[in-house]
Amino acid sequence: MKQTIWKLENPIKHFDWGSMDQITKILGISNPSQKPMAEIWMGAHPIGCSTAIEIDNHKVKLDKLINDNPQAILGEDTYKKFAGLPYLFKILSANKALSIQVHPTKTAAKCGFEKENQLGIALNDPKRNYKDPNHKPELIYALTPFKAMRSFRPIDEILMLFAKVNVSILENEILKLKNNCTPQQLKLFFTALLNLSEKEKLQLINQLLNSINDIEIEPFSTIKMLAQEYPNDIGIFMPLILNVIELQPGQAMFLDAQTPHAYIKGTGLEVMANSDNVLRAGLTHKHIDIQQLVNNTSFDSLSLNNLLIKPIIKANKTSFPVPVDDFNFEIIYSNDQQQEQKVTSAQIVLCLEGKICLTTEFESVVLSKGESAFIAYQAKAYCYTGKGILATVSN
Ligand SMILES: [Zn+2]
User: Fold this and answer.
1) Residue 121, number of CB atoms within 10 A of its CB
2) What pLDDT is stored for residue 124 in this prediction?
3) Out of 128, 150, 153, 280, which one is annotated catalytic?
4) Is residue 289 left, alpha or beta, with left meaning phi > 0 and alpha meaning psi from -120 to 50?
5) Are 174 and 237 in contact, with CB atoms under 8 Å apart?
6) How many other CB atoms are found less than 10 A from the CB of residue 257?
7) Superfamily for the 154-238+283-306 domain
8) CB environment 17-54: b (16+ within 10 A), e (fewer)
9) Of the CATH numbers 2.60.120.10, 3.60.130.10, 3.30.300.30, 1.10.533.10, which one belongs to the domain with range 312-394?
10) What percent of the chain has pLDDT over 70?
C-alpha cells in the first residue's frame, strides 16, 4: 500500500505588508509569532516548501517526497513537461499595497535569465531581474473584498483623470498623449513618468496631492492611501493610469505575462506558475529596471468590465479557466452526500469552510477550515464528503 494523500504543514511568510489577523479570522490559522502574516505557501518552492505528514506522523518536505518518486507523484506527462510541481498555491493577506509589477513571458524569462547568468549577476543580487527561466502567470481569488490595480485604462479615461488634477510638470506629455491616443504613445508617457529626475518626481507628487486634497472619490482616495503607505513614490500615479478594481468574495482575476498589476488590500487565494520573476514599476523600495520593465509590459488598454475571469459553474463546482497549462483552480461545494473527484495530476486541496473527509483507495484524511492536503497523481481519484468548501489546484 502506497500513501497517496498527505496533510500539509505550510510555511508562513511574514512580509511587512501582511495583515496581522485576517488569515486567522477567515481561515482559523493561528499566528503564533505575532508578526504580519502576509502569505502562506502551499507547494514545493525552494524558498518556502510545505511539509507532508506521513501516516506514521513522520514528516517529509514536499519537494523530497516528489523528487523521490516523481513519475508516480506528478504523473508522467507533468514530469516530462515541467520536471517538478508546476504551480505554487498561496493564501495572501495584504494590509498595505504590494509593488506594482509585471511578469515576463516564458521566452523573455528564458532569454533574460541566460543573459544575466552570462553577465555574472548573482541570483541574490538586488539588481537581478530574472531569478529563473520561467513565466509567472497568476490567478487571484478573493476571500474578502480585494482591492487591486490591473492593466492600463482606456486612454480617454486616463486623459479624463489627468484633466481633473493639476500636474503642470507633465503637461507636455499629457498633450502628446491627447494628440496620439495609441499604446505606443502610452508607452512613451509611462516611460517619461518613470524617468523623471528625483527632484521632478517629488514636485510632481506634491502637485498631485495638493490638487486632490478635497476629493474623496475613487481613484483619488486610493492615491491618498498609497501616498501614506509609500510617501514620495511615483507609483502613487498608477491609479490614474491603471484600472482600480475591488474583487468581491468569490470573484477571480487572471494576470497573464506583461500585465501591470498591484494588490492593494484584502485577503485571497493566489495560484501561480513556479517562478519568482518580477519586474517592478513602483510602490517599492526594491530595484526598478525601467528598460526591462517597459520591454516586458503590454500597453494595450482593458476596460474595467473585462478584468474578471468568467467562471464555469457545473453542479457543485466552480472552475476559473485560465489560458495556461501550469495550473487549474476550482472551488468545490461539498455536502453530506459522498462525491468522487478524478485526479489527473498532483493536486493541492485547501479547506475554506466546514469539515470535509477526503478518501483515496487506501486512506482518508479530514480537513477542517484552513487545513490543506497534497494528493498524488497515482491516487487517480478520491471521494469527499461532509459539509464545507474546498479550493483545489491541479495542472
Ligand atoms: Zn504579480
Assistant:
1) 15
2) 84
3) 280
4) beta
5) no
6) 22
7) Phosphomannose Isomerase, domain 2 (1.10.441.10)
8) bbbeebbeebbebebeeeebbbbbbbbbbeebbbbbbe
9) 2.60.120.10
10) 100
Q: Where are the domains of the chain?
A: 5-147+249-280, 154-238+283-306, 312-394
CA of 118 to the centre of ligand 1 (A): 26
Nearest to 108 by CA among 280, 287, 293, 296: 296
Could you check whether 5-147+249-280 and 312-394 share the same CATH topology? yes
Report the pLDDT value the prediction gives residue 191, as an integer from 0 to 100.
95
Ligand 1: centre distance to CA 288 (Å): 15
Confidence check: pLDDT of 260 > 80:
yes
**Cα–Cα nearest to 222, from 206, 203, 242:** 242
- Does 150 qualify as catalytic in the annotation? no
Q: Which run of H or E residues covers position 201? A: helix 198-211
CA of residue 188 to ligand 1 center, whole Å: 23
Give residue 59 CA to ligand 1 midpoint distance, Å: 31
- Residue with the three cell numbers 486567522: 24
Give SS3 for 204: helix
* Distance from residue 102's CA to the centre of ligand 1 (Å): 6
263 CA distance to ligand 1 middle (Å): 8
Q: How far away, in angstroms, is 255 Cα from ligand 1 center?
A: 7
Under CATH, what is the fold of the domain 5-147+249-280?
Answer: Jelly Rolls (2.60.120)
3-state secondary structure of 299: coil
Helices marked H in 45-182 — which ranges? 62-68, 70-74, 76-82, 106-118, 155-163, 171-179
- What are 262-297's pLDDT values in tens digits? 999 999 999 999 888 889 888 888 888 888 899 999
Written as nine digits, the cell of 249 is 468574495
